[in-house]
Recover the amino acids of this structure.
């Protein structure tokens, strides 16, 4: 193949990029990635790109419709909606990324451990515990647990746990079953592969094989799963904050902004609820498109179907 | 087969008991103590101690949980609220009926849209209808139902005036009135399921259509619609279990949708209970939700086995 490629006529940069995009999941995945990059950049660069202070109230500018000064209008306290959306991205992305990281670290370790001791008591213990955790409905428990502990920050020595930190840890633990099962399924199949047998014959320890050889080969379904979990986390954070049990005011998050807009839903102030919902939807669409594309790209059946 | 059903069911029972214990510990140990709620902040230590003895709160928490569980199984008693003095079970069953109606309506609506859409998308793979169904699926997965609900209220109720923006009319009062208040919430709730089920229907149908037995049937000259019916029956298997799973998830999201449309279902009980720090009721509502969710998971599991003969012989 490589010899052939040398002889092939030089392609333009554009067609090279197009072929690479096709390889990692197609144009819709690229669109998804673009949406995610734009929103992450906005969140990271919030102090520089946000036109106004997100918590500064201005009662002369209450409930103003979108204009050149305030592109997305102002809310009931005269705060600039666009600036609040940009700053709010930090809280929303923090919860969804944080939960996915916790769920992945725990889930992948447990999945690998269960696959390593497949068929034994450790395997059974891990997978049955995971099954039990999987029977916990995420949203209701998030609401009930945060509601019971209360949304006040918890101080643990030098660290202060904000309410959204509690939320992200809780969601992360409830993500554990999905990540464990994905890792377990793929790692168990990989363990049967010839290269693993070869490594065993070389005298490499089981633990090193799992981490050094099996894990890298499990990464693509894990990454796909993470993308979807981030999408779910965004919606859960928005829902819990909408109920008033997520990010606490006056700090902005997308869910709390929708909650603030709720009393105005029958009034003429459409921009209050429209823009926060639009931004949530676009971000979630971004992660779903990316995940879909990555999954298609990693799916061996794609070759068989010739799609 | 029977052994498998039994072992799955047994595991579900064990899960209910275990998860119920976690819930009990969370609500009883992290919430305010019932004594301080009922007696107020300036109760003396003796009064608190007497109160705890009277209500059995001085016993070890495991014993209290065992007691709670025994009453639940024997008398379907979910406990009595320390705040209102009412039976938590009454409150829960009233809300559950309303929530159940919403969830079932959303589910039926989703099935009615998703299955034809999924089949059509599979039959016309890569053509415009497939593209449209893909776009709808991505939107359905991504647009939060509660925002969709807010948009629907604005356009369907406020601008067009077709349907009420919220509220609830009991089914016993007026059937049409009840349905009119339920259409928008059921739509907002069902869109996510349309996405999940139609995608599953499509991929399952594609798998079946490319299978050898379908090719054989075609080659033998069976009419197209008959082949299609055979394929559909085979393709429904995985869809049924995904649908059962998504039924369980919908219960959770119904909570938020009820809030948007001011429907007096379980969400109202839960949020009122949280704001009144009524942990007996919080625990009761969450327990009922979890139980429903576990039952849906079990149903999905069993349907999967029943519809897929290859799984029947597999290990329990």
């Amino acid at each position: 193949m490589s010899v052939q490629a040398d002889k092939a006529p030089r392609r333009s940069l554009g067609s090279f990029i197009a072929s690479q995009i096709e390889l990692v999941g197609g144009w819709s995945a690229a669109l998804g990635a673009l949406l995610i990059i734009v929103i992450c950049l906005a969140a990271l660069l919030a102090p520089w790109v946000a036109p106004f202070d997100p918590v500064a109230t201005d009662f002369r500018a209450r409930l103003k419709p979108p204009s050149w000064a305030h592109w997305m209008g102002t809310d009931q306290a005269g705060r600039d909606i666009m600036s609040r959306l940009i700053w709010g991205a930090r809280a929303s992305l923090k919860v969804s990324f944080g939960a996915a990281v916790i769920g992945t670290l725990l889930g992948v370790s447990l999945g690998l451990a269960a696959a390593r001791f497949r068929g034994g008591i450790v395997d059974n213990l891990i997978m049955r515990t995971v099954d039990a955790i999987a029977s916990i409905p995420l949203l209701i428990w998030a609401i009930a647990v945060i509601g019971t502990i209360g949304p006040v920050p918890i101080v643990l020595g030098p660290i202060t746990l904000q309410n959204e930190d509690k939320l992200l840890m809780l969601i992360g633990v409830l993500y554990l079953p999905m990540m464990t099962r994905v890792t377990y399924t793929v790692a168990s199949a990989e363990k049967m592969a010839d290269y693993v047998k070869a490594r065993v014959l070389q005298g490499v320890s089981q633990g090193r094989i799992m981490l050094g050889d099996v894990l890298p080969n499990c990464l693509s379904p894990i990454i796909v799963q993470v993308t979807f979990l981030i999408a779910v986390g965004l919606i859960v954070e928005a829902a819990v904050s909408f109920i008033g049990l997520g990010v606490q005011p006056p700090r902005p998050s997308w869910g709390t902004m929708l909650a603030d807009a709720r009393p105005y839903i029958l009034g003429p102030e459409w921009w209050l609820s429209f823009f926060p919902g639009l931004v949530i939807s676009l971000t979630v669409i971004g992660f779903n498109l990316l995940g879909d594309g990555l999954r298609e790209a990693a799916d061996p059946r794609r070759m068989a179907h010739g799609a | 087969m029977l052994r498998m059903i039994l072992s799955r069911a047994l595991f579900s029972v064990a899960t209910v008991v275990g998860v119920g214990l976690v819930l009990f510990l969370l609500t009883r140990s992290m919430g305010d103590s019932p004594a301080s709620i009922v007696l107020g902040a300036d109760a003396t230590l003796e009064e608190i101690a007497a109160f705890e003895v009277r209500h059995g709160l001085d016993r070890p928490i495991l014993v209290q949980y065992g007691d709670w569980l025994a009453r639940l199984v024997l008398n379907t008693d979910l406990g009595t609220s320390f705040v209102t003095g009412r039976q938590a079970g009454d409150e829960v069953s009233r809300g559950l009926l309303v929530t159940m109606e919403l969830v079932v309506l959303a589910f039926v609506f989703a099935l009615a849209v998703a299955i034809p859409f999924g089949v059509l998308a599979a039959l016309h793979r890569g053509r415009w209808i497939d593209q449209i169904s893909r776009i709808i699926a991505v939107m359905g997965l991504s647009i939060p139902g509660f925002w969709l609900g807010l948009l629907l209220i604005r356009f369907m109720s406020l601008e067009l005036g077709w349907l009420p923006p919220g509220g609830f009319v009991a089914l016993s009062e007026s059937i049409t009135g009840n349905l009119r208040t339920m259409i928008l919430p059921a739509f907002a709730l069902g869109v996510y399921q349309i996405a999940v089920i139609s995608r599953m229907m499509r991929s399952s149908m594609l798998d079946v259509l490319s299978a050898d037995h379908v090719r054989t049937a075609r080659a033998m000259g069976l009419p197209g619609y008959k082949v299609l019916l055979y394929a559909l029956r085979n393709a429904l298997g995985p869809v049924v279990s995904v649908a059962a799973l998504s039924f369980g998830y919908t219960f959770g999201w119904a909570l938020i949708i009820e809030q948007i449309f001011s429907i007096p279902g379980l969400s109202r009980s839960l949020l009122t209970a949280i704001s009144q720090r009524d942990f007996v009721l919080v625990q009761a509502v969450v327990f009922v939700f979890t139980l429903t969710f576990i039952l849906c998971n079990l149903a999905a599991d069993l349907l999967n086995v029943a519809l897929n003969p290859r799984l029947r012989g597999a290990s329990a």
